[in-house]
Specification:
Radius of gyration: 13 Å
Distance between the termini: 12 Å
CATH topology: Elongation Factor Tu (Ef-tu), domain 3
Number of strands: 7
CATH class: Mainly Beta
CATH superfamily: AF2212/PG0164-like
C-alpha cells in the first residue's frame, strides 16, 4: 500500500463454530490497490495493516477471499464496543501499510 486507503463498508457477522466474527469487506477498487502494492503477501495471502476507525487504532491483517476476489477486515469486539458498532452499520475505515 503506497498511501492510506479509506473506504466505507457494511459490518457483517460470520457465525463460526466457536464464536461470531465481524468483518468489513473491502470494495473492489480498494482490494485491487492492496493487490497491486502487495504482489507477494505473506502466508496464505494475508496483508498486515494498521487500521483507524473513529478514535480507535490497531494492527491486524486483511484476509483474502477467493469467492469475492476481495479482502476481509476483521473488527474485534473491543473496537466494536469502543466505536458503538453493530452488524449492519456502515463503517468508514482507513488502512495504512505496516512495515514487514
Amino acid at each position: 500500500m503506497h498511501q492510506p486507503i479509506t473506504f466505507s463498508a457494511k459490518l457483517w457477522v460470520y457465525h463460526g463454530e466457536k464464536a461470531a466474527w465481524h468483518f468489513l469487506t473491502l470494495p473492489a477498487e480498494e482490494a485491487a490497490q492492496i493487490r497491486f502494492f502487495n504482489p507477494r503477501p505473506a502466508g496464505f495471502g494475508a496483508v498486515r495493516v494498521q487500521v483507524n476507525i473513529g478514535g480507535s487504532e490497531w494492527q491486524t491483517s486483511l484476509f483474502p477471499d477467493k469467492k469475492s476476489g476481495s479482502y476481509f477486515l476483521p473488527i474485534k469486539a473491543a473496537i466494536r464496543h469502543n466505536e458503538h458498532l453493530t452488524s449492519g452499520d456502515i463503517v468508514t475505515a482507513t488502512l495504512h501499510a505496516v512495515a514487514p
